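Hey, resending since the last one bounced:
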Amino acid sequence: MKRKLAMLLCGCLAVSMVAGCGGGNAGGEGEKGQETASDGLPAAVTEATAKEPGWMADTEPVTLDWYVNYSWYSSMWDTGEFSQWMEEKTGVKINFIVPSGDEGEKLNTMIAGDTLPEIITIEAGDPAFKQMVDAGLLYPINQLADKYDPYFYEVTSEQTRNWFSSEDGNLYCYPNASIAPDQYDELTGVRTYQTFNVKKDYYEAIGSPDMSTPEGFLDALQAAKDLYEGQIDGFIPIVLHDFNETGNYSLDSYLLDYLGVPKAIDGQLYDRREDEGYQTWLKTFRKANEMGLIASNVFTDGRQQVEEEMAQKRVFAALYQNSDFTVEQQMLWDEDPDTAYIPIDGPSIGNDPAIEGPGIAGWTITCITKNCKNPERAIEFMTYWCSEEGTRDAMFGQVGTSCELDENGDPHYTEEYQELYNSDFDAFTQKTGSDPLWMLGDPVKANNWALDTPEPLQEMYFWAEDYVVSGSAFSMLDPEANTEESEIKADIDLLWGETLPKLITAESDEAFDALMADYFEQRDALGWETLLAYQQSKYEENLEKLGMN
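The structure tokens again:
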């Protein structure tokens, strides 16, 4: 499952910055030009130009040691067809290294001993990144690009570079799965996973009612219960994500995004829980519970239970991420498409939904360390992987062998490879080695080239395509760990986690209002204004970085 997620998620990102840091150069080929210039960098082997990617001028064999800070990561570089094609084309062989135990402990040990491999990939936001920058352990990527491969700037986003630049103005990392606001116009077919879903046959049986208003929503749930409760043992009118110690995804950001509740108004962050429309819908769910339309197990079920219930045809409606029940959706569709789930207009307060699409913060970041023996080949490989060509090679392999280009120049698997992908994904991964290649790549191309969505998922995945917005300005607002603000946020999150189920199970709207007022009073006492001031400052910094202020 994790492999499929990586392919889809970064199936867009399909190529890692497998860039050439020559730590084990075959036949000593990586030693050319290693004398140090006045800027502290090895002298360039090839002439830098912004007109052509640097890797094309030097494809001599070189090996780069690349550390991936995930113990679950499994490299197929030496056996996968696609990675072997990348190596044949660029001359760069990647020696992937992964921790055998605790990732944080391994990384901290390498930092303390200055034994970092040549290239490293870690979680975006990992505190270790700042440690490495402060300790001077990383090469500024912009300086490497300036000296060796200015074509890097042609294949990367300026907003992304600005976003990830450090306080000294240098860029020490580059992300995967990162799409900047200025790239949104280039996106096609953005998949979204936040939809309001109903079982088609049950929905049509009650007359396909409007469920966008509180009244219509409750009436539809009641009608479904009245019709099916006697026919289906354990019938469930609606399911949600699980309740946990900090709340419930379905009733928190999911519902808020679906209602289009803004995160900021006139440049000031807005506590969306204060929104009148949002509270109206929470009261609607409270009323649903009072009417017996929310089954008691909804408050205790986890993902496995929900998906079993959907497979058993016990669920009418789901304010539930559609990517989490793809297996069940396919099963229902195969039996009869009319029994599968479809997205419809759900809860509304009159706004368009504002479904947050891919953001600029990304998933992981990749850095070139000062232990890299050949930073020239490293930055050139990074440029290659971030380019359209490198992304295509990592996702689709060699044109004419595993893929062909259509009239628009877009790649598609050959019939043989497409059939293997559809019939046996594990075998496809073993053959191509494409699934582990997610560290870098052109995220827009990766998204636009994503494989055709299976028919049972098409309507759900693309229902909200017109409502996708960039949430980059609101990325990384949370305070760093072990700070006053982080403790305040943790306390407020726990307070909300305690309050939310009480709101839904309240005996009346008056009791709901009292609970909500008590929540806001306790929130303020915990230091809300201090946290808000911190987040407002980070928000304004984000706007500045993105050129949106």
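The chain has a mean pLDDT of 91.

Sorry for the duplicate.
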